[in-house]
Amino acid sequence: MNIQTANRINTVNEYYFSKKMKEIDELNKVGKKVINLGIGSPDLAPELGVVKALTDSANAFNNHAYQSYKGIPELRYAMANWYNSIYEIAIDSNHEVLPLIGSKEGIMHISMTYLNEGDEVLVPNPGYPTYTSATNLAGGKVVHYNLDESNDWDINLKEIEQLISAKTKLMWVNYPNMPTGANGNWNTLKQLIALAKSNNILICNDNPYSLTLNDTPKSLLELDPNKKVVMELNSLSKSHNMAGWRLGMLVANQSRIDEILKFKSNMDSGMFLPVQHAAIKALELGKDWYKSNNLIYEERRKKVWELLDVIKCKYSKNQVGMFVWAKIPESISNSTSFSDLLLYNTKVFITPGSIFGSKGGKFIRVSLCNNIETLDEAITRIKKFIAQ
Ligand SMILES: Cc1ncc(COP(=O)(O)O)c(C=O)c1O
């Protein structure tokens, strides 16, 4: 048998965390008890009423059928209301919001809906790796734009102007930014939208971190109220501790939603009704919900700063989101070898910034999704290794 994979599969590698978790599992199987400070998967529980809404709904015998591809109207209404209460953005719940099985799948849907072979896509470096892989899988061409520490990880409009060509179709923007923790410069983003309008480029802001350690949650749609070029992905994964539930949304104008639904409805079906009922409950939570989570993340962040001081990494204390992004010591050549050094000698795993692109090569990213005891244990292990 000589069965070849499609060429498109050669444009991507297995997702970094998928591979690394296998390696960590192998270490754990031989008793190494790895502390994973890598992935941003909230360890805190969803709100109790949200889980009850799921179980109550799952217990009803008639809630198990296929669901509408666009989600139930009540869920779309709750999403629109949430956008209004969090970001003060008005959304038509019937036409301008599409529930997603996580925002990650939305990145693929958007890429498949808009990219022809060779269409160019502006992707941040460093940036979430899925923008690159979805572009490649859809046959587009990734054109990286740089985010620089010296520019507070802001978009450099001069560079963007130079990178735009007749083939530029789409640009991924991600503020609050992962992995750098930058909050975005509203003035730059305003000019960027004007540039996109004059060059006929779609801008998609990926916005899953606006409610984590951030006093001013914003939506990029504020700068494009008629949703002419801006679309936005959002997610309950981080803000509501529901990463495994797979709950996201796309907000865009009616034509965009209809175009993307044309692809999505051929790919998957509507999400499980009890998950939709629970999502409605989650979206109705008041400000206290976010506040109580953030108090916990704030304490953890102080511990992470302590850990970073021990390994002599430099970081800004003004970061937002679920991670701390830090520069490795000058003496260490790259973040991958630094991450491996820590993993093999202390059994503490920290994400190397290199997986987010060449601009992340001198950085590491530490997740806040571990409790204080675990972070203390990580610090103890690292101190012991350094003292050897
Ligand atoms: C920047 C960014 N976008 C999107 C996602 C995917 O989130 P979701 O769980 O909604 O698919 C993540 C997850 O880590 C992320 O960091």
TrEMBL record:
InterPro entries: Aminotransferase_I/II_large, LL-DAP_aminotransferase, NHTrfase_class1_PyrdxlP-BS, PyrdxlP-dep_Trfase, PyrdxlP-dep_Trfase_major, PyrdxlP-dep_Trfase_small. It holds the Pfam family Aminotran_1_2. Keywords: Aminotransferase, Transferase. Gene3D superfamilies: Aspartate Aminotransferase, domain 1 (3.90.1150.10), Type I PLP-dependent aspartate aminotransferase-like (Major domain) (3.40.640.10). PROSITE patterns: AA_TRANSFER_CLASS_1. Its EC number is 2.6.1.-. This is Aminotransferase.
